[in-house]
Amino acid sequence: MSDGDGEKTFSGSKNSSPKLPPALLHLPTPETPQISDLRSYSDANSALKRGVCAAIIPLPSLLFGGREPRPGGDRIYGVFDNQLPAALKKLPFDRHLSLQNVRKVVSEADGYQPHLIAPEQGYRRLIESSLGFFKGPAEASVDAVHFVLKELVRKSISETQELKRFPTLQADIAAAANEALERFRDDSRRTVLRLVDMEASYLTVEFFRKLPLEPEKGGNPTAPASDRYADGHLRRIGLNVSSYVGMVCETLRNSIPKAVVYCQVREAKRSLLSFFYAQVGKREKEQLGAMLDEDPALMEKRDAIARRLKLYKSAREEIDSVSWK
User: Fold this and answer.
1) For a tag site, which of 72, 221, 263, 290 has the least CB within 10 Å?
2) What PANTHER family does the database record attribute to this sequence (predicted)?
3) Alpha carbons 113 and 115: distance in angstroms, whole number
4) SS3 state at 1
């Protein structure tokens, strides 16, 4: 072949397209299936992280929405509409505010001598001890909602088809979700107990300002202190405390569910697996492969293909850097 023919082979004529050098014919182009296959295996960490995310994506819709949302909301409303009111009604206020106990508390608060009696301290002690009973139903509501959420997560994870192929990942997600739910439960418990303590630490003054203006029906407001320390006066103290406790009970009946939903249900929707996602992002390919129960032979194949792709890219970059004239 002459030099002129060689030049035509490389540069071509005006009417013909340039021909590639023989070396380029052996390299796959970016559009060929070989390169696509190599790229699918090239980045081990990215591929594994995508696999983890793809397996988890259906989980939130199963938990909190989708075409067939779980009846977790109805069960949670059942806790607030049925369980909490029933627990509040069972509190032993009748026994705690009985005449005998009121006499005992007032006497211990103000002394045994009639001229030392001032019922304010007795009122406060009776109210504080009565409000302490609300802690039990409040904590029970927290635990009941925690149980509902935990059961909801368990069923949703077990029914997520994408997770059934990866038992290790499924177990890791279940452990992470339960750990998060426990954190939400602990925060919720602290919040509802704080609500009760707030009511006990600061009493509504306006309620008690009206008490001197409402003398006992049928009683003598000008009677001496020794007479007012009789059973009728102590019974009136018990009734006043009972009325105040009832007012606080209605407040907590509304505020406890709000606190539980805010601390547990809302946080479960927002950040149930946020910490888990952050931990997955920090893991190396060996750890990710273990989470996905990946075959070691497949991991070795991915590494070999990644090295081949790197060589292909390097060769093409070197050839593309040559300008053909």
Assistant:
1) 221
2) DYNAMIN (PTHR11566), PHRAGMOPLASTIN DRP1C (PTHR11566:SF80)
3) 6
4) coil
Residues in the chain: 325
Q: What is the DSSP letter of 213?
A: G
Query: Looking at residues 41-70, what average pLDDT do you find?
Result: 53
Any idea which residue has 């004239």 for tokens? Answer: 325
Q: Is the pLDDT of residue 222 over 60?
A: no
Instruction: Please tell me the predicted confidence (pLDDT) of residue 312.
Output: 79
* 145 in Cβ contact with 79 (< 8 Å): yes
Q: How many CB atoms lie within 10 A of CB 26?
A: 7
Residue 39: both structure tokens together: 């790229």
Do the beta carbons of residue 146 and residue 260 sit within 8 Å? no
pLDDT at residue 7 above 90? no
Count CB-CB contacts under 10 A for residue 56: 20
Which of 50-59, 167-176, 181-190, 274-283 is most confident? Answer: 181-190
Residue 20 pLDDT:
46
218: left (phi over 0), alpha (psi -120 to 50) or beta: left
Helix, strand or coil, per DSSP, at residue 75 = helix
Residue 112 per-residue DSSP state: S
Query: CA-to-CA distance for 195 and 137, rounded, in angstroms?
Result: 13
Q: For the domain 67-169+176-283, what is the CATH superfamily, name and number?
A: Dynamin, middle domain (1.20.120.1240)
Domain ranges of the chain: 67-169+176-283
pLDDT bucket at 318, cuts 50 / 70 / 90: confident
Whole-angstrom distance, CA of residue 57 vs CA of residue 277: 11
Q: What is the sign, positive or negative, of the torsion defined by CA atoms of 147, 148, 149, 153?
A: positive
